[in-house]
Amino acid sequence: MRLKDKVIIVTGSTMGIGRAIAKKAASEGAKVIIHGLEEDLGALVVSELGRENARLHIEDLAIEGAPQRLVDLALESFGRLDSVVNNAAIVAASDIHTTDKAFLNKLMEVNTYAPLFLIKSALPHLIESHGAVLNIGSINAWSGEHNLLAYSISKGAIMTMTRNLGDSLFREYGVRVNQINPGWVLTEKEIERKREHGLADSWYKNLSKIYAPAGRIIWPEEIAAASIHWLADESGPISGQVVDLEQFPMIGRNIPKDSSTIPHK
């Protein structure tokens, strides 16, 4: 078991990628702090993992003191803290015309500021355990779709933060900081967004290979499987790295001439 007895906070873990990471981490022996906004879904995850392996914290990370309360719960429940997975994020459409200061601030607070301050709150305990941080970004960090402007800005910022802290925290304290940039993943929220766009719930079953060369998009469990390596000691001294998990290269991709706008990711 690659995470035996490690204690890990996974934000945004009541559903989607975060839920898959939490469940995979527990299957590898970890104790997990489940976090999100959906109390019923979070309680279900804790029930699946067992109270001996998981605790639940429901709170908006933008609220003052929320990061410290997550850390405190980990310490009170399991006596230590080994890793933080910053997965919680707001995915919201906007472009240059619809992005105002308040909207951008809202996304930055949850997607960028909250991960930074959770790392800061957790740092004394991560130093003690020689722990690790895994930030869950997005391939939109590289430039982003035209209608994901604010979201892409927030993910570009966290990618820079990962590289900065991955160097400084590892050099000074031995705490590793790495990042995964998922591509298009089939989460509950993605199904909900497509439903709001008027698509049937089966939209993902017949995707063009322009968008999904494999004939399907990525499952949350596949992102979770990759995450375990960065949380486990097997990843060694590697820090400050950003890994894209998508079906095609984000830089240098050969876009077919008949392609149109890439769908939301």
Compute the number of structural domains. 1
> Total number of β-strand segments?
7
| DSSP summary: helix tally | 7
Structural class: alpha/beta
Helix content estimate: 40-55%
Strand order of the largest sheet: 3-2-1-4-5-6-7
| Secondary-structure element pattern, one letter each | EHEHEHEHEHEHHE
* CATH-derived architecture: 3-Layer(aba) Sandwich
User: And the CATH topology?
Assistant: Rossmann fold
End-to-end separation in angstroms reads 32 Å
Radius of gyration: 18 Å
CATH C-level label: Alpha Beta
Describe the global form. globular
Protein name: NAD(P)-dependent dehydrogenase (Short-subunit alcohol dehydrogenase family)
InterPro entries: NAD(P)-bd_dom_sf, Sc_DH/Rdtase_CS, SDR_fam
Organism: Algoriphagus yeomjeoni
Family: Belongs to the short-chain dehydrogenases/reductases (SDR) family.
Describe it for me?
It holds the Pfam family adh_short_C2. InterPro entries: NAD(P)-bd_dom_sf, Sc_DH/Rdtase_CS, SDR_fam. Belongs to the short-chain dehydrogenases/reductases (SDR) family. This is NAD(P)-dependent dehydrogenase (Short-subunit alcohol dehydrogenase family). The protein is globular, with a radius of gyration of 18 Å. The protein has a single domain, classed as Rossmann fold (3-Layer(aba) Sandwich). Helix 1 (16-27) crosses helix 7 (220-231) and helix 4 runs parallel beside helix 5 (149-173). The two termini are 32 Å apart. It is an alpha/beta fold and 265 residues long. Helix 4 links the parallel strand 4 and strand 5 (132-136). The chain has helices spanning 16-27, 39-49, 66-78, 101-129, 149-173, 188-196, 220-231; strands at 7-10, 31-36, 54-58, 83-86, 132-136, 176-182, 242-245.
